[in-house]
Amino acid sequence: MQPTADAASSAPSQKSLGHIRVLDLTRVLAGPWCAQNLADLGADVIKIERPGVGDDTRTWGPPYLKDAQGRDSSEAAYYLAANRGKRSVTVDIASAEGQAIVRALALQSDVVLENYKVGQLRKYGLDYESLKQIKPDLVYCSITGFGQDGPYAERPGYDFIVQGIGGFMSITGERDDLPGGGPQKAGVAICDLMTGMYASIAVLAALTHRDRTGEGQYIDMALLDVQVAMLANMGANFLASGTAPKRWGNAHPNIVPYQTFATADGHIIVAVGNDGQFRKFVEVGGRPELADDERFASNPMRVRHRDILVPLLAEMVREKSRQAWISELEAAGVPCGPINNLGEVFDDPQVKARGICVDLPHPVTGHVKLTASPMKLSVTPPQYDAAPPLLGQHTDEVLRDLLGYRQDQIAGLREQGIL
């Protein structure tokens, strides 16, 4: 029997990864997304940033977080999305002293994450082979655009480019023969995000192996590998048939109607999964004769005659409001839904009930609203202990508490521009 929400919320919370420390040398999105997942699950994540500059995404705005007076702060919303729960330490890793600090922190860590160009950290003695010599049980994860080997290994990797190279854009976008047809990227950096998710799983698998055997290992994550893997059934369709899938926009290649329609005042999604649902759909729309038409009586026939049927359905749907359609179709058992903007998303009663928005204290702005982790664990749920850190917010704390630096040593390093 599953615990109730009240019981789960009143039980003492534990941290799944409270025994794990992660040294995060990543920036932008794929690596920070992985590190944020681990931080949400309780890991102590130390984010290493360049002094005075920090993660590139700190300046990827507007929008920026507003301070108490309503002015833009230095924290871009993009940065806030992927850096919750971490500690920020500023270190110049191009300096010998900075390299020594990072090596010392690696010795105190279970995991190192990095997304530098292939081979770039070797010259600093911060690559896996170098750190493995001083910490054999280290789990070390490298994230690049194209992996550590192969003809593209030296290329810089950007999500948008990889969406194109990896085939995603060939199946995303409106049909070429319709207005606005052509390749389209996703509305978010989906390849970066999925790489961060796959990297999180790989790190947890490597930690489990380490705990069983004492052996660390190297993880080579590539955006292109992830993009091809996440083609899922589309990739399998090609491998099975030898025929490249094409773009269908908001329609489905094998099911009709399974797409968006314009209503009198907005848009809805209708996902008819069988012939009975199709009949109910057209009955709600006042066109029951369409279900009796032999051209539309079965899904294979509807697919064959989609160019005739879909305009008839589009005309039918435009006769009612979005809410009227949703209410009537839900009552009839026909799968449907609205296409919400983000204001409507965060105001949705189901989203609110699931606690997908969290409000955390922030040292400059007082508080910051963030999207919560979707992981729901009954005993060790994600915990939101800290907002995304200010640049270098924890430098003194980490060097003092973990590495034993005196305050005058820290001040000296800061004067030299190393911190």
Outline the structure in words.
This protein is of the alpha/beta class. Residues 1-12 have low confidence and may be disordered. The strands form 4 sheets. Strands 5-2-1-6-7-8 form a 6-stranded parallel β-sheet, with helices on both faces. A 3-stranded antiparallel β-sheet has the order 9-10-11, with helices on one face. It folds into 2 domains: 8-230 and 352-415, Rossmann fold (3-Layer(aba) Sandwich), CATH 3.40.50.10540; 258-262 and 267-338, formyl-coa transferase, domain 3. The chain has helices at 5-10, 30-40, 77-80, 96-107, 128-134, 159-165, 190-213, 223-229, 232-241, 275-284, 289-292, 299-304, 306-317, 322-332, 342-347, 349-353, 395-403, 407-415; strands spanning 21-25, 44-49, 64-66, 72-76, 86-90, 111-114, 139-144, 217-222, 258-262, 267-271, 336-338, 357-362, 366-371. Helix 2 crosses helix 7. The longest helix is centred in the middle third of the chain and has 24 residues, at 190-213. Strand 6 (111-114), helix 5 and strand 7 form a beta-alpha-beta unit.
